[in-house]
Amino acid sequence: MDTPYHVRSRDGFPAFAHHDSVSALWSQRWRPPCAAGSYPFTDGRVEDFDPVFAELSRISADDPAVLYRPDDYAKPFFPVADRLTAAAREAASRENLLEARDLYLRAAAVYRIARFPVNRSPLSQEAWEKGKAAYEQGGRLLDPPSNPVEIPFTHADPAAGDHGTAIPAHLRLPRGPAPAGGWPVLLFICGLDAYRTDHTPRTQAHVDRGFATISFEIPGTGDCPAAANDPASPDRLMSSVLDWVATAAAGHGLDAGRVFARGISTGGYYALRLAHTHADRLAAVVAQGGGGHHMFDAAWIHAQNRMEYPFALADALAHKFGYRDPDPAAAVARYAAEAGKFSLAGSGVLDRPSCRLLVINGMEDSIFPIEDSILAATRGGNKDLVVRGNRGHMGNPGAEEIVYAWLDEARDVGSGSRRS
To answer: Model pTM?
Structure first.
């Protein structure tokens, strides 16, 4: 039976050579974005990573299996990241705050790749903790600063698997005094591997355009306390965040009646859900690079480990959605068998009314199939769809500018906005 995926074509699912060795991952897939300072290397420098990947290649005899032994993979990153952190502290002691900021952020970038794609072992968890600490130091020195906040998880359901802890987030407010009605708010919903410490350029662009940004992780990633394996847990998470915006608005100069959201990659899945489950509390939502239905097909899941994503994506997503058997193959098998419960189409979420919604992705995305974007955007009304030809996941290059312009227009015109 033919599968519905555009990228599969007649020759089967695509396979990318960067999975064949450590050196191929670095030279073919990761070094170009690192040199450009783009995802997932935002805030980093290529000179910090060249020696790490050279060492990884050496100690593994260039065998990509090391990439799937999280502690062995993480070890070579720590000396570089620790050195950058020490240099940042020394610069701060001299009150050279710009140098300290850049060094802290560079350290955070190295720790980020050390725990990539998810923190699922002792050393990757240590990298996440150290990366958070470094980013918080550097983030306070940004202009405007990125400040940690804790949002009460007021709608948590421990019986469903939620943790009773707060929702950690980063808040950035635009420079200067708030306008009379308060700053419009943008909920920045993070992805599978890029957390609240990892989006400096994007939040910078939004605050420069007049949005207060609140960045937080999705279930099963980072420090998110919402249950990984419960399809309804994001609804409790988002209700808690939106309630906090309403109660904290006066203290932070926020406009609780103009709340927007942007989800990226796996966060785009949660943005699609949010646009329908909380339509009456949001002005507009962007789902960039997200999936919602076919991403949970067993055929797609079993092909993911060799496609566009730099690591074994099915393994990482299985972990993220709460399938954490010691044997990754067993975890993926369970995930593939049960993932349909997360479908936004199968659960009826996409049949609900939506707030104003932009769905944007690249036609050649082999992380989440473009069919999911088309399905989500053409079911119901009040939606815009941008499919970028000859682009992969997220639709870049060029998609960021489209997103910024669309959100600016939604904010300024107010079309489709709803008040809490």
So the answer is: 0.96
